[in-house]
């Protein structure tokens, strides 16, 4: 789990049960008063998510029946990873904080509109959120309105990926975000004036309309594949604690997630000068290398940087892939597991170069060689 994820420490179900009667209705208690939740009931999982959203972020969220109930540890992992990637762009104010004119696109935002709501409330970002399903779209609109975040989140019912940027309402929304930001923030260009700063070029670039995109695509190509994958997990590893929620449309797409992300890649080439960082979740580890290879094949001849990471939350694993056509060193952001897998630096010094072959003398020789270099 991301080191800044607030759910590294498990929430107190007892505290939630005291604060939220709707959540308490799905709890059982032992003789010591410890609360337990039945994760196999979708209503219980929904009550947990909505209670945590309100308690931890002050968000009032309603999620219709038969629609995906987002698990917050995963959503926070993804958003915090995006924040790490954005930090590479040096999109900072004079106080060293990230600008509030950051704009992202959430493709397939879902009924909860969870990424835009969390991103706006927790990080101060702005979002254009798209959704194809009419029930989920209506719910997302109501959730944005209920939390009075309509100035920071624009929800559009659309099957388009990045072509949504051609929409007049979207253009007006983006202009308003940039205008308000310029009126309220003074951006420091001190780093850009330094020739040694890696942020010099990025700080002066004004052509990008969008800072990042994110997407939680349907993972399966059919309901048969979804059921087969579920049964295979029973034999290979522990079952997820929580029941699977969501409509078939939220979990199934023609060609599966590889086909879906392929379309994102093709569109990203078209919008490479308008969007800084493209990203997506991946549901199957075996698809990660395939998708990265597709990015490199489809962008052959273009300057593209690609990185990936893994998101671990309990028994559920997901993976993230990001790519950019800008000169952003995305590969600098690596997960804890990737850090642990890196081989240590090794310096070999022959005995013939040492009068005394000891750790102290080798350390001294290493310092001399470094100064000479």
TrEMBL record:
Composition bias type Basic and acidic residues, residue spans: 227-238
Keywords: Methyltransferase, S-adenosyl-L-methionine, Transferase
A Pfam family it matches: Methyltransf_10
GO biological process terms held by the UniProt record: rRNA base methylation
Any GO CC annotation of this UniProt entry: nucleus
EC category: transferase
Amino acids binding S-adenosyl-L-methionine: 75, 108, 131, 216
Gene3D superfamilies membership: Vaccinia Virus protein VP39
GO molecular function: methyltransferase activity
UniProt region (Disordered), positions on chain: 227-250
InterPro entries linked to this entry: METTL16/PsiM, METTL16/RlmF, SAM-dependent_MTases_sf
Claim: Signal is one of the keywords in the record: no
EC number(s) from the headed UniProt entry: 2.1.1.-
Entry's family note: Belongs to the methyltransferase superfamily. METTL16/RlmF family.
Protein name according to UniProt: U6 small nuclear RNA (adenine-(43)-N(6))-methyltransferase
Species of origin: Armadillidium nasatum
Taxonomy of the source species: Eukaryota, Metazoa, Ecdysozoa, Arthropoda, Crustacea
């Amino acid at each position: 789990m991301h080191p800044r994820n607030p759910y590294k420490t498990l929430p107190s179900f007892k505290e939630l049960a005291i604060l939220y009667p709707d959540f308490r209705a799905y709890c059982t208690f032992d003789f010591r008063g410890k609360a337990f939740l039945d994760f196999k009931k979708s209503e219980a999982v929904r009550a947990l998510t909505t209670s945590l959203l309100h308690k931890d972020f002050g968000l009032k969220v309603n999620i219709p029946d038969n629609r995906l109930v987002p698990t917050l540890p995963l959503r926070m992992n993804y958003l915090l990873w995006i924040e790490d990637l954005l930090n590479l762009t040096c999109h900072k104010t004079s106080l060293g904080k990230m600008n509030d004119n950051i704009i992202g696109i959430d493709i397939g935002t879902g009924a909860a509109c969870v990424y835009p709501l969390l991103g706006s409330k927790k990080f101060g970002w702005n979002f254009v959120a798209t959704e194809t399903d009419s029930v989920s779209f209506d719910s997302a609109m109501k959730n944005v309105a209920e939390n009075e975040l309509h100035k920071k989140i624009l929800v559009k019912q659309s099957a388009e990926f990045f072509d949504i940027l051609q929409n007049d309402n979207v253009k007006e929304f983006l202009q308003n975000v940039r205008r308000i930001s310029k009126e309220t923030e003074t951006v420091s260009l001190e780093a850009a004036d330094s020739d040694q700063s890696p942020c010099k070029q990025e700080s002066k670039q004004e052509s990008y309309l969008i800072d990042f995109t994110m997407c939680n695509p349907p993972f399966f190509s059919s309901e048969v594949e979804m059921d087969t994958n579920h049964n295979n997990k029973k034999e290979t590893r522990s079952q997820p604690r929580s029941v699977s929620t969501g409509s078939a449309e939220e979990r199934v797409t023609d060609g599966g997630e590889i086909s879906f992300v392929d379309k994102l890649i093709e569109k990203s080439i078209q919008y490479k000068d308008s969007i800084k960082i493209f990203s997506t979740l991946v549901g199957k580890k075996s698809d990660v290398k395939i998708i990265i290879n597709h990015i490199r094949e489809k962008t052959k001849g273009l300057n593209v940087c690609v990185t990936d990471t893994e998101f671990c939350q309990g028994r559920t694993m997901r993976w993230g892939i990001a790519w950019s056509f800008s000169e952003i060193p995305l590969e600098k952001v690596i997960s804890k597991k990737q850090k642990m897998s890196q081989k240590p630096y090794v310096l070999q010094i022959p005995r013939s170069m040492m009068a005394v072959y000891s750790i102290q003398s080798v350390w001294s020789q290493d310092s001399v060689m470094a100064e000479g270099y």
